Automatic annotation (TrEMBL):
Protein name, UniProt field: Large ribosomal subunit protein uL11m
Organism whose genome encodes this protein: Mizuhopecten yessoensis (Japanese scallop)
Superkingdom of origin: Eukaryota
CDD domains xrefs: Ribosomal_L11
Coiled-coil parts of chain: none
Subunit note: Component of the mitochondrial ribosome large subunit (39S) which comprises a 16S rRNA and about 50 distinct proteins.
SMART domains with a match to the protein in the record: RL11
């Protein structure tokens, strides 16, 4: 994630204090919606329809609410239809893992954390992500230094290496090589799943 993009998210998140309340779980729809991009199309439309929520009303309300956040961020969202048919919407910022992978330029973490490096981020990335997380009501009791430590721990848990600086060209080459490794891992995983399926079928015949 480019530094400017991270700052844009920070700017949009500064006033964000929307966290889920302790309301009864049965009356709340939990889902993930891209900021500023709620649409009536599946899967969101049918989910709202089952709850009796007016879809166009929700989309407008959600998109207006998240208009100051970088567009397209996957926001964990909680939706409740009140007795007067109005909608109560609460949302949080994306997970720490999402920001870490975005900063590292990868789609997912390591298959075997501790045994491989899935990507790299800088201390500057850690600081900027910490600022985003600090703006959430759930982490306002922690100081920035402690949040940075937690984020570094999260980075290590998904196979990210935290460094002081990154050479753009060297890291670009690293990502190219890493993509080959991921493709090999994916192919091997598919072969293992298929082999397990065949073994199960053979066992059922006996």
């Amino acid at each position: 994630m480019a530094r400017g993009k991270v700052k844009a998210v920070v700017k949009g998140a500064k006033n964000l204090k929307n966290v889920v309340s302790g309301e009864a779980s049965g009356s709340i729809l939990r889902t993930t919606i891209p900021s500023g991009k709620a649409t009536p199309s599946p899967p969101l439309g049918p989910q709202l329809g089952k709850k009796g929520i007016q879809i166009s009303q929700f989309c407008k309300q959600f998109n207006d609410m998240t208009g100051n956040i970088k567009e397209g961020l996957p926001l964990p969202t909680w939706i409740k239809l009140k007795a007067d048919r109005s909608i109560d919407i609460k949302h949080a910022m994306p997970t720490t893992s999402y920001f870490l992978c975005s900063a590292a330029g990868i789609s997912k973490g390591a298959l075997s954390p501790g045994e491989e490096i899935a990507g790299k981020i800088t201390l500057r990335h850690v600081y900027e992500i910490a600022k985003i997380k600090q703006s959430e009501g759930t982490m306002d009791r922690f100081n920035l230094q402690n949040i940075c430590k937690m984020i570094i721990g999260s980075a290590h848990s998904i196979g990210l290496q935290v460094v002081k600086d990154l050479d753009p060209e060297e890291y670009r080459q690293f990502l190219i090589e890493r993509e080959k490794v991921v493709e090999e891992q994916t192919l091997k995983r598919q072969e293992e799943v298929e082999a397990k399926y065949l073994r199960t079928k053979e066992a059922e015949k006996k």
